[in-house]
DNA sequence: CTTACTTTTTCCACTCACAGGACAAAGGAG
DNA sequence: CTCCTTTGTCCTGTGAGTGGAAAAAGTAAG
């Protein structure tokens, strides 16, 4: 199928497209209530959007007491691809223009195999989604990678956990392969955009998203916009010192938060506890699986295992301590906890909350919700779709 | 004298006013090079500004190879008042519209005496400046206070070191007394704006300013704009935990940065060292003055006193540790160190740099200058003038 | 079914901001 | 004095946008 190539011609059209994306199908009259344009001007812009086929007519709206209005919606054939590359797995999803997930595949994979191998898999996953009839092609794609990105060019820079990716032109390469516009960002930033679009952060303008997965990262949203820092490495909180003279970390320092609590650290601690027979629950799991991961700790904790609960509490305390510092500094309106370890659930959350509320001043914590992410594994792919749609639905 | 009451009528005029503020007198032709407007449009807007008397003609410019252009400048009679209220002293300055300091008074004072007493002094200082012929009246005033501020209303909220100020309508009261528009902000934010306007941060868009005075605070600039946080308390880094189970702090916690290093903590440490006879230099100063302050420590350090140097180094290490965390999180393009203790100079700076460069990752520190502020005690008042001029030179 | 009232949509005349060309004014270089 | 460059002014054309009038398409009550 021929893909859409049109872009909004001006700020008004971009505004309308975003309203339709975020609010779904809408009548012309309702749109008029939201944009502060004269009826005539609005009609002209809507007609032009209809000509470009970015939006289509969608029957008549219910009456609001008089003549019924005509409904408008984004072209239902538009498709975005959301790709979330994690350290140990990849998520690929298809969305429509309203960013609803139509299909979603997850596949284990080691990011250290390098961009060529990973993108082969990503492309075949995308092809599978297309083959299942969910899309005939993609109008844009958003890609999340687990490391800092030079955002304008879409190129990873000095990513610690994916050394082979340094300088690889992700944006350009995938744009070529997929035949559509592509934007690339840090996975944590995309998670933040996802929660902002469809999750817990819908109404907040300044907030933090702390993602605890294989590593630990933080998405920063200022005034509704993701803040990426001077070199694209903002939010890299995994290497903040949490324990003076603590454990050695891969980065060369000691006591980094990530060395003391993260999916990887938790798995290692659990193995150690199992081998030392501190927990029969964990020891049994180790025996039957041959190895342990954060998921096992979560399961053990759910079963009431004291050692597992202690590990989680301890990690939550460390994390909470770091977050308390960030809260004092940044004074956010919301803190979202997400990532693979969300399975650890409320034990973790309670430990974090305790630390933050104790250590930060009342003015900053007084009205500060600290909550788990609402979208789970789809936050990243929704954020990815949001990224590319923001790009496409902006004036050319 | 009749004060200016005019405001720019549109965004173009605001743009022109800011160009004239930041670039000084300019020819019409030069302005045209900077604003991307047709010559006719530019002429119209400049003529309107001349009518309002916000700008005035200023002779002929040098020829650029053809007909000489007419010079334009901001009305030289415009005067802004910059007020920087610290914990133990107040700075008041008069500037012209280009934000050049024409007169500057500093006076010791205890902020805990409350807003009424403090503002009596401020008003009399302003009157003194006016009486000396520097101003016939003020077209606007910026006020900095040492605590969080609800910015839109200009009201301090829950300020720890100035309890009597909570909820006092600073903006409204001073606007009444001075008879001109007033804006209020945290003193650290104003320091950041000052360094941005006329100091070391002129070309940087994302940076931090750490002010070490009686307490410790941090100004955050994102995309060229001061970030104030959800409740106006962003940058309150004095109560980040720097030492686990460290010294008790006035806030009720233990180990806060401010409890271990700040003007107040430094003075206390110095007294202790003097009483224990660890340093004859400090002991002598204590004997002759009856008390010690950060200034004495600076002097002792300059004289080579080992104890004083140790105190500074230790404090710098603690501060550097906290800043390292902020650098990882925020990835700024510049870190400015300022405030009363700037006198401690390069010993302090070196200690901070060492910690930051050691603890943060290379991607964040690779091209990160950490420098002392350039403006010293005038940073605050220049920032205050900048605050009110930004407000006045924006479309009504 | 008719009538009165609403809401939505289209049409049209009018205003306004702005661009850009023509031309005059003012200066420099030879 | 002549030719060229830059600056400032004037004027007209264009396109964006507004707001009123009227037509179109409903609802609600008699």
Automatic annotation (TrEMBL), chains A, B:
One of its GO terms (molecular function) is kinase activity. InterPro entries: ATPase_NBD (IPR043129), ROK (IPR000600), ROK_cs (IPR049874), WH-like_DNA-bd_sf (IPR036388), WH_DNA-bd_sf (IPR036390). Keywords: Kinase, Transferase. PROSITE patterns: ROK. Pfam families: ROK. Belongs to the ROK (NagC/XylR) family. PANTHER family: GLUCOKINASE (PTHR18964:SF173), ROK (REPRESSOR, ORF, KINASE) FAMILY (PTHR18964). This is Glucokinase-like ROK family protein.
């Amino acid at each position: 199928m021929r893909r859409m190539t049109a872009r909004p011609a001006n700020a008004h059209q971009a505004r309308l497209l975003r309203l339709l994306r975020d609010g779904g199908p809408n009548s012309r009259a309702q749109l008029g209530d939201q944009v502060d344009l004269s009826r005539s001007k609005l009609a002209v812009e809507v007609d032009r959007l209809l000509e470009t086929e970015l939006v289509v007519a969608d029957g008549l709206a219910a009456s609001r007491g008089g003549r019924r209005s005509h409904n408008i919606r984004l072209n239902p054939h538009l498709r975005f691809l959301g790709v979330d590359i994690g350290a140990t797995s990849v998520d690929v999803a298809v969305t429509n223009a309203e960013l609803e997930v139509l299909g979603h595949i997850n596949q284990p994979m080691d990011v250290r195999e390098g961009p060529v191998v990973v993108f082969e898999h990503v492309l075949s996953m995308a092809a599978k989604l297309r083959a299942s009839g969910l899309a005939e092609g993609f109008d844009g794609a958003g890609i999340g990678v687990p490391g800092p990105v030079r955002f304008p060019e879409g190129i990873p820079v000095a990513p610690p956990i994916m050394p082979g990716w340094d300088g690889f032109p992700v944006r350009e390469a995938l744009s070529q392969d997929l035949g559509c516009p592509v934007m690339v960002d840090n996975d944590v930033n995309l998670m933040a955009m996802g929660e902002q679009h469809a999750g817990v952060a819908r109404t907040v303008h300044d907030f933090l998203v702390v993602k605890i997965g294989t590593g630990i990262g933080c998405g920063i949203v200022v005034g509704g916009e993701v803040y990426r820092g001077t070199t694209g490495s903002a939010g890299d909180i995994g290497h903040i010192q949490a324990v003076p003279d603590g454990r050695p970390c891969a980065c060369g320092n000691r006591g980094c938060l990530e060395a003391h609590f993260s999916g990887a650290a938790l798995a290692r601690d659990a193995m150690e506890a199992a081998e030392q027979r501190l927990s029969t629950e964990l020891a049994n799991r180790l025996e039957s699986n041959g190895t342990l991961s954060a998921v096992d700790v979560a399961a053990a904790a759910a079963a009431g295992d004291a050692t597992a609960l202690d590990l989680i509490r301890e990690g939550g305390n460390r994390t909470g301590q770091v977050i308390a510092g960030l809260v004092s500094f940044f004074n956010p309106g919301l803190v979202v906890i997400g990532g693979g370890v969300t399975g650890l659930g409320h034990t973790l959350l309670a430990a974090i909350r305790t630390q933050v509320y104790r250590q930060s001043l009342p003015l900053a914590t007084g009205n500060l919700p600290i909550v788990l992410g609402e979208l789970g594994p789809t936050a990243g792919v929704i954020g990815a779709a949001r990224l590319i749609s923001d790009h496409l639905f902006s004036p050319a």
